[in-house]
Design a protein that fits this description.
8 strands; eight-stranded parallel barrel; binds 1,3-dihydroxyacetonephosphate; 12 helices; alpha/beta
Length: 259
C-alpha cells in the first residue's frame, strides 16, 4: 500500500499577516520548480487571521503544491458561539484540512474526546479532512499506559465515523513530552505506536481502510530527523511545529520526505 506522505507545518500562535505571507511565499518559491509527483503533500496551518493571505499566495502560485489547514474549528454551523469559527467559514479560504485534538487544545483549552469526535464528524461531512492528534504525557509513558491511552483517544475520536470515511482521515501521533522540547521520539518507537494506531483503526473500520489512513509523527521533527522517520514502515509524514516557522528548515524537511 503506498500512501502519499504529508509534511504539515503547524504554525501555532505565531506570525501576523505580513510574517505569514513572507513565510508561505518563501516555502512556495523554494519548492515551485520541484516535480510535483516527487513532493509529499505540503500543508501549512496558519492562525485564523492569516488564512486569507496565505490562501491567496498559495492560489496565485497556481501549482497546487501547498494545501491550507486550519488549526481548529467549531462543529456547529453558526449561532451564539462567541469566538468560534465554523467549518463553512474555513471553506471561504479553500481550507482543505483542519487540525483537531492537538494536545495544546486538550490541555490548555480543556477539549474533550467527545468534542474532538463532534469536530471530526462535522469536518468530514463538510468535505474537509481532519488531522486528528493523539499522544501520551511523560507520566503516562512511564506508567506503561501509552498504547491503551492512544487507542482510547483514537476509538473515541472516530466514533460513528463511517468506515469508508475513516480511510481518508489523517492522524498525527504527537507524544506530548516530545513537543517543543527538542526530544524527538525514537523513530522505531514512534513507528511501533503508529502501528498500534493502525491496528486500532483496523478494528474499527477494517484492515483495508486502516491501510489507507495516513499517520504522521509530530514532536521536535527537524531536518536531521526526517529521513530516518520517513524510512519507517508506518510513518507517513510529519506534523511540524517549531521547524515549520523558518523557510529553510521546513523546506529541508519537505525535501527529506521526497520520493
Ligand atoms: P514541535 O515540532 O515544535 O515539537 O511541535 C510539534 C507540534 O506540536 C506540531 O503540532
Amino acid at each position: 500500500m503506498s500512501r502519499r506522505p504529508i509534511i504539515a507545518g503547524n504554525w501555532k500562535m505565531h506570525n501576523n499577516r505580513a510574517q505569514s505571507e513572507e513565510l508561505v511565499c518563501g516555502i512556495r518559491d523554494a519548492i515551485k520548480s520541484i516535480d510535483k509527483d516527487l513532493l509529499p503533500e505540503v500543508v501549512v496551518a496558519p492562525v485564523f487571521t492569516s488564512l486569507d493571505v496565505v490562501s491567496k499566495n498559495i492560489c496565485n502560485c497556481g501549482c497546487g503544491r501547498i494545501q491550507l489547514a486550519a488549526q481548529n474549528c467549531y462543529y456547529e454551523a453558526k449561532g451564539a458561539f462567541t469566538g468560534e469559527v465554523s467549518i463553512d467559514m474555513l471553506k471561504d479560504f479553500d481550507t482543505k484540512f483542519v487540525i483537531i485534538g492537538h494536545s495544546e487544545r486538550r490541555q490548555i483549552f480543556s477539549e474533550t474526546d467527545e468534542m474532538i469526535n463532534k469536530k471530526a464528524i462535522a469536518i468530514i461531512e463538510a468535505g474537509l479532512t481532519p488531522i486528528i492528534c493523539c499522544g501520551e504525557t511523560l507520566e503516562q509513558r512511564e506508567l506503561g499506559v501509552t498504547d491503551s491511552h492512544i487507542a482510547s483517544q483514537i476509538v473515541k475520536a472516530l466514533e460513528n465515523v463511517k468506515p469508508s470515511d475513516v480511510a481518508n482521515v489523517v492522524i498525527a501521533y504527537e507524544p506530548i513530552w516530545a513537543i517543543g522540547t527538542g526530544k524527538t521520539c525514537d523513530s522505531a518507537e514512534a513507528n511501533r505506536v503508529i502501528k498500534v494506531i493502525r491496528t486500532t483503526i483496523a478494528q474499527i473500520a477494517g484492515k483495508d481502510n486502516a491501510e489507507k489512513v495516513r499517520i504522521l509523527y509530530g514532536g521536535s521533527v527537524k531536518p536531521e530527523t526526517i529521513k530516518e522517520q520517513m524510512a519507517q514502515s508506518d510513518i507517513d509524514g510529519a506534523l511540524v511545529g517549531g521547524a515549520s516557522l523558518k523557510v529553510d528548515s521546513f523546506v529541508e524537511i519537505i525535501k527529506g520526505a521526497m520520493k
